[in-house]
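Schema walk-through. Below, the input block comes first and the output block second. Nothing else is stored per chain. Lengths vary across the set, and this one has 281 residues.
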Amino acid sequence: MAKSRIRVWNSENIIFTLDKNRAKQYKEEIVDINEKYVRISNNAFERNLKIKEVVLPDTLVLIGKNAFKECKSLKKIHIPESVKTIEEGAFRDCVSLKIVKLPDGMDKLNKNIFKGCNNLKKVFISTESEINTIDSDVFNNCEKLEYIQLPKAVKRIEFRSFYRTKSLKKIALPEDLEYIGKEAFYLSGIENIEIPDKVKEIDDSAFKNCKYIVGVRIPENVKRIGKDAFSGCRRLKTIEIPHDLEDIGDKIVNLHTTVRCREGSNVDNYCEKFGIKTEYI
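--- output ---
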């Protein structure tokens, strides 16, 4: 297959942004961008149904919003270590994409980056990456995602970050994690989850309908468990909450789940109020 190469410079040898108009000139299945672009602009390659593989230059710093959105034939994307920012929706609905390796210098995975990439199986990120936030909907509806290793620096997992990741059986949550957002792992396939000690809040429906989880222990730094946080977890036999919580939402578990708690704690009182079985620790 032929490769497309385009060189665009100004008279002072300053490197241009690769914008939507210039991107239209890439018409081959394999796009090798060896020119020294720093930015790929918003929507640059959006809905390009021809490209199957893209090699980005090692001078690139930013991939713009929706830059490759709905490139439905795109199977491979080579992202250099120079990239610091991938903006919202950059690879959204790239339904042929299967494997991605992300650079270490990013500090955040922005909204919707891989949302709807329903054939994405593996995401490689160094544990030493600077990424500290997995923003909303990053892997929403990535139904075949089966492997991802989160960086140590991650402190927040936001709304629907891993929503409906049905093939994701295992995920190690980093020890510095502080917040697990609303519906973050809703209908995920995870079988075993360890909540790190530094987590302070598990928001509404965070693990709702994770039907393979069997047991959970809530660390003592957790101050709030939101509504429906573990409801619909059909195999969840026990959840251990060894301390008083500042806020407990409605229906955090199904009635078949036993809550292990201290006698007389506010968790014990909560369970009595809602008819949830308890076992004292």
